[in-house]
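REVIEWER CHECKLIST
Item 1: Sequence provided? yes
Item 2: Single chain? yes
Item 3: Sequence as submitted:
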Amino acid sequence: MAESNKSKPTARWYVSSFHKKKDDVNVVGVVEKIEYTDESGNKTYKDNLHWYYDPQRVFYVTQPGWRNYKYKKEFEDINLCDKYICRDSELEERIGAALGYFGYRKRPLRQLCASPYLYVADIPTEDLIKQEYVRRQPQTIAPFTRGGLDIETEVRGEKRINVITFIHEHEIFTCALKEYCRIHLGDDKFKAATKEDCLGVIDKYIGKYMKDHNFTLTFEIVDTELDLIKWIFARIHEKKTNFVGVWNLSFDIPKIIERIVSLGADPEEIMCHPSVPKEYRYLDWYEDKSNTKQKAHITDRWHWLTLAGYTQFLDSMCLYARLRKASGKESSYSLDYISNKVLGQGKLHLEGEISNHWYEQTYKFLDYIAYNINDVLVMQLMEFKTEDMIALTALSGNSLMSEFSKQTVQVRNDAYVFAKQHGKVPATSSMNMFNEYDEMMIKVGGTVLPPNKAIGVSIRALEETNGRTLATVLTNDLDVSSFYPSVIEAFNISKESCLATIINVNGHTEQENEILNGGIVQPRVGAMDVGTNFFGLNNYREALDAFNVDLASGKI
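Item 4: Structure as written out by the authors:
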C-alpha cells in the first residue's frame, strides 16, 4: 500500500485586508497566502480569506497609583499599566469605564484619546491584526500573484466602457462591446467583426510581443456594457489575483463604479468576490483630494479601493513615483513615458500616435483593442522588472498598505511594535495635541542639520572597530544640508530606496561579500572588484597587460 503524501500548512503570510464596520456588522477579512508542504518536500500555495468577527483588541491604562503626571508621555512602562482586552465594537465604552467616565453620553474615541493615561487605543484593530501576522510569518517574501487592468471609454455620448483588459501573471483577458466590433468598408459602410477578425488584428500588432514574453490571451465579445464589466470581474474573482495595478487608479475605478450604478446594478455584488457572504460585502472608494504642499503633484496622492475579496487594486503610477521619491520627479508620468524609460517599450502607436480617439473607436476599433491590451501588457512587464508591488508589501511593514503615504501613521505603528519589545507602550494621539507651553516655543520652521552634526550618530557595524556606518535606526525624515538626492539614494538612507540587504552570497567569503555591497553603491569605483571576485573578469593588472599586448600588436 502506497504511503499517503498529504500536504500540511507550513507557513502563512498576510496579503491584504479590509474592515467592514457599518450596518451592525463588525468584521475584518484578511487575505492569507498559505504554504503547504507534502511529505516529499514539495510546496504549493493557496489563497485563503480568514474572517475575524468583531475581533478582540488591546489597550492600556496607567494604574491609578502611577497617575502622577499631567501631560502625555511618549511611552509608559507596560508594568505600570493595566491591560484591557475588548471587542472592537465596545472599544469606546470600555475605555470610558477604564478611565472612570460614567454616564449616558458615549464619548468618541478621539476625545477619549486626549487622556494622558491611555495607550495604544488609537491604533486601529485592523492594524493590530496585521502586526500579529507580521510577527508570526516567515521573514521571506511570499509568492504573491500580480496583474493589471485598463479600460477604454467612449469619447462621446454616455462615455460607456467599450473595452477592458485584465491580466493575471501571464494570462490576458480582454472583453469588448459588440456594437463597436466592426470593420470599416469605406464611406459609412461597416460589417460586424467576428472574434477571429479581432484576434487577427491583435496578433498583427502585438502577437509576436505576447509570444516572446509567454503571454496567452482569452478574448470575448459581449452585447452590453454591464455584461462586459461582469465578465472581466468574473475573471478577476476566478484568478484571485493578490494585487492588480491600474495606471491612474482615480480614473478607472470611479468610472467602473459609476457605470455599474448608472446601469442599475450594485457595485458590491459585481466587484466583491462571490464567496464573500452578502452581509460582509463591502466597497469603499477613497479618492485622495489633498491639496497640501506635500501632495501638490498628482503622483503624491494615495487613492485607495477597499473591496471585500481576494484582490487589492493599486495605483501603479502613484506607487512608481512614491518608491522613487529620492530620485526626484519625472518630467512626465504618462504610461508611455515611464514604460519607455523602464522597458524601452511604450504604448502602441497605431500608424502614428492616436490623436483622435473618436476616429479610432469609430473606424479602427479592432486596432483600438490591441492598443488597450498593450497598455496592460507593458504595465505587467514593468512590474515583473521593478517588482514595485513586492516592494510595497515589504516596506509597509507593520502598517496597512492603505497607510503607505502617511508617515506619521507608520511611525506610530512601528513605535508600538518597537516599544512592546522593550516593555513599554506608546501614548495615544488625540484631536488636540497642544498644551499651554507650546505657544512659548518659537516657530523656526524645519530644522536643517549641518553635515558635521551627522558624524558619530549612526550605528557601528563591526565589533573590531569603533568606526560607524551611514546607517541609522528609528529615523524618519533626515534633512542634511548638502545631502543631494543622489547621495540619499546611493546609500539607502531614504526608506523608499531600500528593499533588502545582501547578507551572504553562496561560495564567497565575508570579505568578498563586503566588496559586493560596496561595489553596488559605488558602481563606477567598485565595478572592477565586483567583476573580478564574482564574474571571473580580469583585474587591473591583467586588464593592463592585455591592453599592452593589443597595443603592441597594432590592434589598438
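Item 5: Key structural point noted by reviewer: Residues 56-141+397-426 form one domain.
Item 6: Recommendation: ____
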